[in-house]
Structures are given as C-alpha cells and as structure tokens.
Amino acid sequence: MSSSHHLVLLSSLLFTASASPDHGHLVATPAPTKTIAELAVASPQLSTLVAALTAAGLVDTLNGPGPFTVFAPTNDAFAKVPSFCAGALTDLLADPAALTATLLRHVVPGAALEARQVPMGSTVLQTAGGEDVTVTRDHYISVKSSSGQAWAVAFDLMATNGVVHLVNSVF
Predict the structure, then answer these.
(1) From CA 138, how far away is CA 20, in angstroms rounded?
(2) pTM for this one?
(3) How far apart are CA 100 and CA 93, in angstroms?
(4) Closest CA to 56 of 8, 116, 97
(5) What is the DSSP annotation of the chain?
(6) To the nearest whole number, what is the mean pLDDT of the chain?
(7) 106 or 89: whose pLDDT is higher?
(8) Cβ-count burial of 25 within 10 angstroms (0-12 exposed, 13-18 middle, 19+ buried)?
(9) What is the pLDDT of residue 26?
C-alpha cells in the first residue's frame, strides 16, 4: 500500500467521509465539533432562531445528547411571519408557550436524519412537541405541519448531536 493510501486511511479515521457533489468522489470532511445550538449561534443566518430558542429556554435542549433532526427556519423565514399578521413575530416571541410549541414543531428527536436518508415520497415524523409533520422528498425536501409548509434550502449541516436542515418558512 502506498503512503498516499495510508494517508487516506488515516484521514478516514480522523474525518467522516461523505459523497462530494463533484463526480461522486469521496472527500474527507471534518467531523462535527459543535452541538446544534452552537452551530446555530455560529451561523449568522440563524440569529433570529437563536433569539427564539433563548426566549423559549430551548438552548440547553439543543445542546443535549440528541440525536436530533432540526428543520431550522432562517432569518428570512422568520421575516415572513409578520406578513401573515402584523406583529405576529413580536407576539410569538412574547408568548413562551406558543413559541416553544412552534420551535419544537421543527425538531425531530431520536434520529439525525440526513437528506439522503429521507425516503422518496412522504414520511410522517413525530416532532419533539408531539405533533406529526410530513417530510416529502422528491426533487426537493419539504416539511408540512398543521401550521404550514417549508422547503429545505440547505441540507446536512452536521452537529455532534444531530443534523440541521435550513428551511424557508416557519411552520
């Protein structure tokens, strides 16, 4: 075995291998070092979500062992909330019970479900809040709840305790 093969073998022990979009080659990607909450804090496009998690007292939950699959609304997703009703986002942030229910609707406990692991078609998953959401995979991944629907705009942000998919709406 050549030294380059040993380096690849060593790298595979140190990093998680994942399929690259460029011709399906395997490339070494660093193993996750942040929890879901830490990942959200470090992501500028999730600052409103972080504020909401803090207001609802859910930061410790998403720092917990998991595993979790989180459909994380981006700042743009939260910006759409007032268009439904003037002051809706402000009202939501001021109502801890409603805020917690809304945020837990975006969290699926018990699995770190990467995009490629979502079966084709529709799959019903139970959220951390006890509600069912329907995750549909066709050309895209969408999530539908009794409160709305969102589409994933970024996939497989890996954390030490699960996976985050960014979505375009609060559902």
Answers:
(1) 20
(2) 0.79
(3) 9
(4) 97
(5) --HHHHHHHHHHHHSEEEE-TTTT-EEEEPPP-S-HHHHHHH-GGGHHHHHHHHHHT-HHHHHSS--EEEEEE-HHHHHHHHHHSTTHHHHHHH-HHHHHHHHHTTEEET----GGGSPSEEEEEE-TTS-EEEEEESSSEEEEETTEEEEEEEEEEEETTEEEEEESS--
(6) 83
(7) 106
(8) exposed
(9) 65
The token duo for 138 is: 């066709």
**pLDDT band, residue 89 (cuts 50/70/90):** low
Distances in whole angstroms, Cα of residue 162 to Cα of each of 24, 48, 78: 24, 20, 22
- Compare 22 and 69 and report the one with higher pLDDT: 69
Name the region of 156 (left: φ>0; alpha: ψ -120 to 50; beta: rest): left
Matching residue, tokens 């997703």 = 77
Residue 24, token pair as written in the block: 């399906």
Look at residue 4 and tell me whether its pLDDT is greater than 90: no
Beta-carbon contacts of 35 under 8 Å, excluding residues fewer than 6 positions away, are: 62, 63, 64, 159, 160, 161
Q: How far apart are CA 71 and CA 107, in angstroms?
A: 6
Is a pLDDT exceeding 60 seen at residue 73? Answer: yes
